[in-house]
Amino acid sequence: MKIKTGLGQDSHRFQDKSKPDKFWANKPLLLGGVLFDDDLSLQGNSDADVVLHALCNSISGVTGVNILGKISDDLCARGITDSSVYVKEALKYLGDWQICHVSFSIEGKVPKITPKISNIKNSISKLLNLQTQDIGITATSGEGLTDFGCGKGIQVFCVVTVIKE
Asked: pLDDT tens, 18-69?
């Protein structure tokens, strides 16, 4: 059996509600495909799901095919802003490799992630066809040491492990 590991990172800043931008004004906050009811929105030309973007980047770390960038921009230009579509696109390049484990580290002061970890795991397990016990998610405020820990946005790191028999 062969094993590979991919590391992905992504971050988005929150929309400043005092300076509304028509592009981001009414965008809901989605993390890992789960809607958060907080009055927050992340900036991005897609749905700005930073968790799925980090996942997409970690898969790209295995395949060498960058999805976020030209491919996702082309999809956005066609009106496809659902980040799960980008993940599905990244999965096409795995070939015979199968994802066996995914781990996320989410940094941000807001919103509170822990109450929705099981929902995020369920969402990602369906997207990747994995069991929820094969998905790890941790959340931290980072003790306010970064802009994310100070509430200016969210940063996510993702590690994906793939195997080939």
From this structure: 666 655 557 899 999 999 987 888 988 899 999 999 999 999 999 999 999 8
Contacts of 17 (CB under 8 A, 6+ apart): 39
Ordered by start, the domain boundaries in the chain are 2-164
Question: Cα(98)–Cα(3) distance, rounded to whole angstroms?
Answer: 10
Q: Is the pTM of this model over 0.85?
A: yes
Contact 90, 56 (CB under 8 A): yes
Fold of 2-164: 60s Ribosomal Protein L30; Chain: A; (3.30.1330)
